[in-house]
Amino acid sequence: MNNTLLEVTDLHVEAEGKEILKGLNLEIAPGELHVIMGPNGAGKSTLANALMSNPSYVISNGTVRFKGEDITFWTPDAKAKAGMFLAFQYPEEISGVSVVQFLRQAMSARKGIDVSALEVRFALLEWMERLGMDPSFAERHLNAGFSGGEKKRNEILQMALLEPDLALLDETDSGLDIDALKIVANGVSEIRKERPEMGTLMITHYQRILGYLEPDVVHVAVDGKIVESGDAELALSLERSGYEKWRTN
Question: How many domains does the chain have?
């Protein structure tokens, strides 16, 4: 039995005609939390977007396997229904669609059944309380007028209700103050407790969120490849010494 949830092999990705990922390899087992850190331009967000088939990112070589299946060129919709979730670095505002409407449609598509509005509201209220969100946000248009921290908490709210098998968190901690960071980190932790088989890939520039979440593996990405992997101590050493060691090799 293959115990690998996500397997990325020799992945090459281009954006705007420029190669950004240059043979990246990565494996995540069920229940594991992996963190990718690296300098600007290393390809961290490119990886997240390519894994979810953002059309602006073109896979030119390599394979992506999810739960044993080759999903390299699946559509974003197919990947989401299969259990992949991406929390965006810059969540989009969608006017005319309320949070509760969006989540009812997304939950129905994920589960393959028509989820009732009542079921969505019960789940929403529970998780909004956990994430310190005003219940009135459920009726507001998706991310419209939300602060940066509210948008990030809304991404975690979506992750909780959609119950993914693999969560990709693209700089979910960026722009958060200390209180919001703790709420978001605790939200991720609570979801992982309730879904112990869920794999998580967190992309971040900073070690601070790892004070609340203990990663199984920390990866260093430089120039489109993962150049070193280790435990949480690796993240601490990056805070102290940066990435110069790998840039000069």
Answer: 1
